[in-house]
Amino acid sequence: MSGNGPVIEVSGVSKSYPMGFWRKRVKVLSDLSFVVGQNEIVGFLGPNGAGKTTTIKILNRLAFPDTGTVTIFGEEAGKRPGSRRRIGFMPEQPYFYEYLTGAEFMSLCGHMNGLGRGEIKRRSEEMLTRVGLDGAAGLAIRKYSKGMLQRLGLAQALLHDPELVILDEPMSGLDPMGRMEVRNLIRELKDAGKTVFFSSHIISDVEALCDRVVMIHKGTKVAEGSVDELMGKEGVQYVEVVFSPLPPPGWASAAGLTRESGSVQGDTFVLKARDHEDANHWIGELRRVGSLVTSCIPVKKRLEEIYVEQVAGNAREDGLGG
Amino acid sequence: MGGRIVSIAANTFRETIRNKILYAILAFALFVIGITYFLADLSVGELTRIIVDVGLASIHIFGVVTAVFIGISLISQEVDRKTVYLILSKPVPRWEFIVGKAMGLSATLALTTLAMAAMLFLVHLGYERSPEPGILIASAGIYLELVLLICLASFFSTFTTPVLSAIFTLSMFLIGHVSKDLIVFGGRSASAAVQWAAKVLFYALPNLENFNWKNEVVYGGVRSPGVLGMAAGYLLCYCAAVLTAACLLFSRKDFK
After folding, report:
1. Which CATH number fits domain A6-232: 3.40.1190.20, 3.90.25.10, 3.40.50.20, 3.40.50.300?
2. How far is CA B157 from CA A17, A297, B181, B241, B256, in A?
3. pLDDT (tens digit, 9 = 90+) per residue, A14-41?
């Protein structure tokens, strides 16, 4: 974590909703705690129904926790509506007043954020241009495509130049080009000193963007840390060593290598060693037959694999417990 | 604060006046008021009274239909469509949202009531060749009643579905025109508890007859300014109480 105090501090938050005819309370979040530091990009990962959107609603005072505390910039979330001027929020699949044009909607959001007329006009034009909607500012929102709605959601979240930006599934509904633009925008926000907290299903985006990741499953945190920490925890999966020229035919099987651990790819021999010690052993063996190392890469687990393991592990524990 | 409320009200007004169903209701109301001109010719005696009577009844009925139709969508539609997320996640206290919505809808009703009242005024003027300001006074009474219904609809829509909100608001409209009878019925009972309960109910339920100035216009009477002031005061107090309750319920509402 970088910076001074945490921007977001979620501590022991539990939340349940009454469901069904008998209004039986179903737990959605259970003793959830995490922090988001200043100028960090933090990804919030979890499968559908994990409680990501509920957490984000609590951060944005659209829902209230049963127990626990949520502070943003050191203040209890939602206690003072005025403090929300420092926060920009884009809900998942944002819904708009469809009878308004993009410019009219931005103007409404500007008034809600307490901006002056001149500032609203200037910032609206700037933000609509920034998200590529400058040509559609006068178009009724009902005529916008899904991707355009997502962009408008981003534009309104950034309209008042907030210090903290909370985005619920910002990449959802965007084509690869749009996703790249949003990724760049998030990076630019960090460069401008902002803090970004976003949920996403697209793990590659989280891996590429985030300083830290919080993973939840069934309302409980299953992992938290920097991407490096999370991947480091799991250690090196294997060491991939590439040799050239090829060793003599039949050498690999004679040396006891399986097809998975050693294979010919074009004019190179690719070996998957268990660890660095094993890699050094095989480097020595192959040098003896005239094959030299052209590359040596320790392969770590990808965030996606860690995520799947955490979620699957949690599900197994639930099964054992239940 | 005021700027945000006005913006929410202006947005609500813009939303409702861009609603085609509202225009359909208004067009039908204007048509019905318009044909009172010919209805008077078909009736025997009291010709202008027929125009005013039927015309004001039309303004009342179509006004209530409009108020209930747009009133029940006040909050529930915003919640269902999740548009409320984008407003309430901003530095907007929830009570400002409720008050702004109620003000916007009241402005829409002012416009539709004014249109219907102007139509009736012109029909009467065309038939009688002399203006009848009482039509405008009686229409103002109808409008005050509609504002109260809007506040009630907003209260119900903070905690129930649009259909139930509509049923509750219409029930309040019907009860509101007979609530004075509660005192009469309570007075007939020998039980002090029943008398007390009747009194409590009378003060809790809206007394919409306070805004019913149609008979005075039809039969040529005029309401004194004091009575009009009392009615306006009653409206302010009742709406403030209902909206406060709506704001309290809405302030801790969880959006799923």
Report:
1. 3.40.50.300
2. 19, 62, 28, 16, 16
3. 999 988 888 888 899 999 999 999 999 9
Give the β-pairing of A75-76 and A67-72: antiparallel
d(CA B144, CA B166): 19
Q: B5 to chain A, minimum CA–CA distance in Å?
A: 9
Is B254 close to A97, i.e. CB distance below 8 A? no
- Please judge whether A83 and B7 are an interchain contact, meaning their C-beta atoms are less than 8 angstroms apart: no
Nearest chain B residue to A107, by CA: B7
pLDDT of residue A235: 63
Distance from CA of B18 to the nearest CA of A (A): 7
A291 touches A245 (CB < 8 A): yes
Q: Which residue positions in chain B have pLDDT lower than 70?
A: 1, 43-46, 218-223
Lowest mean pLDDT among A1-15, A211-225, A229-243, A290-304: A229-243
Is the pLDDT confidence value at A2 over 50? no
Q: Which of B186, B218, B234, B245 is nearest to B120 (CA)?
A: B218
* Structure confidence at residue A322 as a pLDDT band (50, 70, 90): very low
Q: Record the tokens describing residue A34, joined without a space.
A: 């995490």
**A49 shares contact with chain B (CB less than 8 Å):** no
B3 → closest Cβ in A82, A96, A111: A111
Q: Quote the crossing angle between the two packed helices B20-42 and B94-128, to the nearest 10°.
A: 30
Which helix or strand (DSSP H or E) is residue A79 part of?
none
Residue-wise pLDDT tens digits, A240-269? 899 989 888 888 888 888 877 888 888 899
Residue B8: list chain A partners with CB under 8 A. 112
Contacts of A64 in chain B (CB under 8 A): 252, 254
Mean pLDDT of the region A176-194: 91
Q: How far is B133 from chain A (nearest CA, A)?
A: 37
Report yes or no: A64 and A78 within 8 Å, Cβ to Cβ. yes
Please check the confidence at residue A312 and state whether its pLDDT lies above 60. yes
Q: Which long-range contacts (CB under 8 A, 24 or more apart) does B185-191 make?
A: none
**ω into residue A18 within 30 of 0, thus cis?**
no
Q: Is A27 on the interface with B (CB under 8 A)?
A: no
What does chain A come to in residues?
322
**Of the candidates A222, A315, A313, which has an alpha carbon nearest to the alpha carbon of residue A32?**
A222
Residue A317 pLDDT > 90: no
Radius of gyration of chain B (CA): 20
